[in-house]
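User: tokens in, sequence out, please.
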């Protein structure tokens, strides 16, 4: 797969004229679909959405909005054994958070189960489907076959339509056990596309459903349900990721072999989003959660939308990332550095600046009587309307431990014995001596005639608020953990990054004690951070969203 890296600013300046935009614009010019554009986002509620789904959401909703249409949010809830109300609610929250609204168009595939049952019965009556008594194991091992060889027809393939209809009704009535019977489409056992070798349309599942309860014990397969849902809802452009391209002939077969459908939808495929240093499979993500490798679906190391939100990413940054990645039919591996670049670019414009020290070293100011009680600090130099704030100052400060060295290397421009440094918003410090764990300094006002090359940040020790700061990094230590595991015959767990979470106990300026959960800030010289929902009275917790610069680029260059 091609690796997508950070584009030059000019490359991401304007929305790209990708092929889906072109298709929709061509259809509108030709007057197709009565000039309507109706898309849908149809997640399976069997897990939390991740950054890959965010791409699909932005395309599905974005194309509809851009062309004056509508986008439906539909739960493709055809597998009750893996679906939960928790996932349904989280999906709605994530779509809203990304900035999209489905209005009155919120649907469940299960709302159409009655109509789908009737459609399947129609296919049976037409001789296009039959009830099969083979087990899944018998089918896959003996009958289906593998290209280029043709498969063997099921011994039930020529069962009379009346008998299949009777058995189908018995399946619905709960008279048969799970796996005892299924309904198969009668298509082509010699097709090079396995999806056309008499695929299953309906199966028996005696399981409670999160939306319909125990009303049904037979459920349509995704491949049968999906084109019907699109047809029932009048979808004009059914946008899917590229893995569904081989499913499209079955999608079209279902539409073409049923009468009186309200519309004839068309499916289009685009490349899914793959991201470096993570895994994108819901099954793998669920494993990481269940095994306790992460703290839950919304762990900030996870690629889930909930995890990105908790980490401090913005919906605007994610939408910009999706636009920068583009929409093509070519599989690629997008560099997580591009996502982080979009986050930095967005937070630089909107995040308020604050002072924080994560690894404190104590500084004592000898001329305490000359210092101010507070100083003015800029809230955001990128946003003049953000104004300034007052920050307490005192004779005892905390600075970062690595901002002082007794025996510095060449070109070290921070605090050293006998040397001076600018302190952010508050003048200068000149180091006089070291007494125990304290660096004793003399303070000089901002207008002092001192020439220095370095500026450091600080917090007033007297006023500082302690904070737990979680320093999140990439979940895996290699770009493509699944591919590397397969190539080396290893378990992908072996490539989990042991340093993906480090915790520091630092100090922040006092105004941050009143910050709200998920509020984002730039800790000057340190990076972008947000307040974690774990914060409560007496316990302030911050998550690092991204560093100020791409530190991994330096690591890669050295390697």
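Assistant: Sequence out:
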């Amino acid at each position: 797969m091609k690796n997508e890296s950070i584009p030059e600013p000019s490359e991401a300046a304007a929305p790209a004229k990708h092929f889906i935009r072109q298709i929709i614009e061509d259809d509108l010019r030709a007057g197709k679909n009565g000039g309507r554009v109706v898309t849908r986002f149809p997640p399976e509620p069997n897990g939390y959405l991740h950054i890959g789904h965010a791409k699909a959401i932005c395309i599905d909703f974005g194309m509809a909005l851009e062309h004056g249409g509508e986008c439906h949010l539909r739960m493709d809830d055809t597998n009750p054994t893996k679906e939960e109300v928790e996932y349904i609610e989280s999906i709605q929250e994530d779509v809203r958070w990304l900035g999209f609204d489905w209005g009155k168009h919120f649907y469940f595939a299960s709302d159409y189960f009655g109509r789908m049952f009737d459609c399947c019965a129609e296919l049976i009556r037409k001789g296009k489907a039959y009830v099969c008594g083979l087990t899944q194991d018998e089918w896959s091992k003996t009958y289906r076959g593998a290209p280029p060889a043709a498969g063997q027809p099921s011994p039930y393939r020529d069962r009379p339509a009346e008998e299949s209809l009777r058995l189908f009704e018995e399946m619905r009535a709960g008279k048969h056990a799970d796996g005892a019977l299924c309904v198969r489409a009668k298509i082509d056992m010699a097709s090079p596309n396995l999806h056309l070798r008499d695929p299953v349309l309906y199966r028996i599942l005696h399981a409670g459903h999160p939306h319909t309860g125990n009303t049904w014990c037979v459920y349509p397969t995704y491949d049968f349900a999906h084109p019907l849902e699109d047809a029932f809802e009048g979808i004009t452009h059914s946008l899917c990721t590229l893995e569904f391209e081989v499913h499209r002939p079955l999608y079209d077969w279902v539409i073409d072999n049923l009468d009186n459908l309200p519309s004839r939808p068309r499916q289009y495929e685009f490349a899914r989003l793959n991201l470096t240093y993570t895994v994108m499979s819901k099954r793998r993500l669920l494993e990481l959660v269940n095994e306790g490798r992460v703290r839950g679906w919304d762990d900030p190391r996870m690629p889930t939308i909930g995890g990105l939100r908790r980490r401090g990413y913005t919906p605007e940054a994610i939408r910009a990332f999706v636009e920068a990645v583009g929409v093509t039919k070519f599989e690629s591996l997008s560099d997580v550095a591009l996502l982080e670049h979009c986050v930095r670019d967005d937070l630089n414009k909107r995040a308020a600046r604050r002072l924080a020290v994560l690894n404190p070293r104590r500084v004592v100011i000898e001329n305490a009587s000359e210092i101010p009680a507070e100083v003015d600090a800029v809230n955001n130099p990128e946003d003049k309307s953000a104004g300034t704030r007052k920050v307490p100052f005192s004779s005892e400060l905390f600075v970062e431990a690595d901002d002082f060295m007794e025996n510095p290397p060449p070109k070290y421009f921070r605090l050293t014995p006998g040397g001076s440094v600018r302190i952010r918003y508050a003048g200068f410090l000149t180091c006089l001596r070291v007494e125990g764990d304290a660096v004793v300094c003399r303070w000089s006002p901002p207008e002092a005639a001192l020439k220095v090359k370095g500026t450091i940040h600080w917090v007033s020790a007297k006023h500082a608020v302690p904070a737990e700061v979680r320093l999140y990094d990439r979940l895996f230590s290699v770009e493509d953990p699944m591919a590397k595991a397969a190539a080396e015959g290893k378990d992908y767990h072996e490539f989990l990054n042991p340093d993906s979470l480090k915790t520091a106990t630092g100090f922040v300026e006092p105004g941050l004690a009143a910050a709200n959960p998920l509020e984002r800030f730039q800790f000057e010289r340190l990076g972008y951070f947000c307040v974690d929902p774990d914060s409560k009275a007496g316990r302030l917790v911050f998550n690092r969203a991204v560093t100020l610069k791409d530190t991994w680029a330096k690591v890669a260059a050295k390697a």
